[in-house]
Amino acid sequence: MAVKLIDYGTKHYSQMVSLRYALLRKPLGLAFDDGELEEEMNDILIGCFDDDKLEGCCLLKQAGDGALRLRQMAVVSGLQGKGIGRILLQFAENIARDRGYKKIIMHARKTAIGFYEKLGYKTTSDEFEEVTIPHYIMEKIL
Ligand SMILES: CC(C)(COP(=O)(O)OP(=O)(O)OC[C@H]1O[C@@H](n2cnc3c(N)ncnc32)[C@H](O)[C@@H]1OP(=O)(O)O)[C@@H](O)C(=O)NCCC(=O)NCCS
Predict the structure, then answer these.
(1) Cβ distance 32 to 74 under 8 Å?
(2) Which atom of ligand 1 is nearest to the CA of 23?
(3) Does the C-beta of 23 come closer than 6 Å to ligand 1?
(4) By 3-state DSSP, what share of the chain in percent is helix, strand and coil, each rounded to 5?
(5) Angstrom distance (rounded) from CA 52 to CA 117
(6) DSSP 8-state assignment for residue 43
(7) Ligand 1 probe mutation, 79, 80, 113, 128, most atoms within 8 A of CB
(8) Mind listing the pLDDT tens digit for each residue in 83-123?
(9) Which of 14, 50, 75, 133 sits most deeply, having the most CB atoms within 10 A of its CB?
(10) How many Å from the N-terminal Cα to the C-terminal Cα in the chain?
């Protein structure tokens, strides 16, 4: 297994978009819009690979005030609960620290709160709805 940065527009990026669509959008009857994906050329894109097969991914987006926003965290369904999410998030945090960021924030799905809490994130908002499902703002000081 290898965690690495993904370059926007490459074959690995297409794999990442497919995984995110299958796990995060299709079950909700939603799609990505072109503008949303185009913006990702400026983001830090991260994938966990077994040879050339993508097992999980996430991305980091500029959020101002020395913070990055974590988005689109997803691990292949049959591989969840095996530590891949933790490895991805720790890699993302190390990149953020190395680049001088002080905080990671996110809009976390209610169903994933327990995962982020295990990695040291705290909720900082009331529940709100996004992509049709309940979310909370969570953050961690790096
Ligand atoms: C949420 C997700 C990214 C976690 O990745 P993962 O590889 O399954 O998680 P890990 O195996 O690294 O788990 C790390 C720890 O968090 C726990 N955990 C994982 N998912 C959890 C969840 N949904 N709720 C509570 N705890 C969870 C694990 O039990 C493990 O605990 P342990 O250290 O005590 O053993 C993954 O399950 C996923 O892709 N889910 C569907 C998409 C999704 O909800 N993405 C998040 C959008 S905000």
Answers:
(1) no
(2) 42
(3) yes
(4) 40, 40, 25
(5) 30
(6) S
(7) 80
(8) 999 999 999 999 999 999 999 999 999 999 999 999 999 99
(9) 75
(10) 25
